[in-house]
Design a protein that fits this description.
Blueprint (H helix, E strand, L loop, with lengths): L31 H5 L8 H14 L2 H6 L16 E13 L6 E12 L2 E14 L2 E9 L1
Antiparallel strand pairs: 1-2, 2-3, 3-4
Protein name: YchJ-like middle NTF2-like domain-containing protein
InterPro entries: NTF2-like_dom_sf (IPR032710), YchJ-like_M (IPR048469)
Organism: Microbacterium galbinum
Length: 141
């Protein structure tokens, strides 16, 4: 099993010692946890995308809102309570490093809902403003 195939339980009470849902292979406390708690910022577009995936997994709407660019942020963000995000696979990345101004991350996010399985495949665009990465938008593939 690859690190991206491993995941933590889909539980809002995830502990720092649990495997991070983003599939990095790291523990939540050393991966997305500090970013979701706003103790640090994501150094790259990919790390922000991974933290946003984790926020969807655990239902952290505040993180999603805080990391969504104001020009495209919806008025409200709804989390479907019966939708379970099961696995994240990063497929490609363009730029998005610590010194870039923009980046693109392509990913496949696998989900389960009411016994049905599916995949959200997206190429997401990110910008870095004032040393913070923000999600702008994405194209579904």
């Amino acid at each position: 099993m690859t690190p991206e195939a491993e995941m933590a339980p889909h539980d809002a009470a995830i502990t720092d010692s649990a495997r991070c849902p983003c599939g990095s292979g790291d523990l939540f406390g050393g991966c997305c946890g500090p970013i979701l708690r706003a103790e640090t910022t994501a150094p790259t577009a990919e790390r922000l995308m991974r933290s946003r995936y984790t926020a969807f997994v655990i239902g952290d709407v505040a993180h999603l809102r805080a990391t969504w660019h104001a020009s495209t942020r919806p008025a409200s963000i709804e989390i479907e309570p019966d939708l379970r995000w099961r696995r994240l696979v990063v497929l490609d990345r363009e730029a998005g490093g610590p010194f870039d101004r923009a980046g693109v991350v392509e990913f496949a996010a696998h989900w389960l809902q009411d016994g049905a399985r599916g995949v959200l495949h997206e190429r997401s665009r990110f910008v870095r403003e004032e040393r913070r990465w923000l999600y702008v938008d994405g194209d579904l593939l």
